[in-house]
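Reopening: structure tokens for the zinc ion complex, inputs below.
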Amino acid sequence: MRHLFLTLAQVLGLVMLADFLAGVVHWLEDAYGSEDTPVVGPLLIRPNIVHHHYPRFFTRLSWWQSSWDLLLLGGVIVGAAAWFGLLSWQLWLFVAISINANQVHKWSHRTRAENGRVISFLQDIRVLQTPHHHALHHTDPKNTYYCPVTNLVNPILERLRFWPRLEALIERTTGLRHREDTSVRGQGPGPAWLGEFRPKK
Ligand SMILES: [Zn+2]
Ligand SMILES: [Zn+2]
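Re-run output (same inputs, fresh job):
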């Protein structure tokens, strides 16, 4: 019984850790990423800007199209762990969730009909983040609820005022400020290239 409880606690902890780290990456992209940054700009920041302007755009992308970067990162982590003899079920679980963070995020933008019964059910019982929960990230000023996998981590970070405190610390020490988000009312207009992503009526 004690063993089962410990295992479940570890699973929960790993899920929350993966959700938190996915949130940190998302926050870095939203707050400090620039589309002009070499390599990262066109690969990660542009899709991120598109997502804030047209949240439904990426729902038409395949798993590969939205997860290749996470898969690559997961491969590096597994490779490094294997090299150091640190492979364990915990590591595999963490990597498996992390690789699928963007897919879970995508599901929270799809309709129930698009998601089908199984995913909708998993959202209903809160195993996966619910669309309602994620919608809080897409509400102006879009600077909170960055974690995309569960409904568990964001409220804890909110209570701690984690993101504004971290941003204040970064501003104090480096002078860097949360960038303008052109999808937020009053901070636009967005870059001209966004036109090609505008939903066709
Ligand atoms: Zn965002
Ligand atoms: Zn989203």
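Residues 2-32 form the longest helix (31 residues). The chain has a mean pLDDT of 95. Marking as resolved unless the reporter disagrees.
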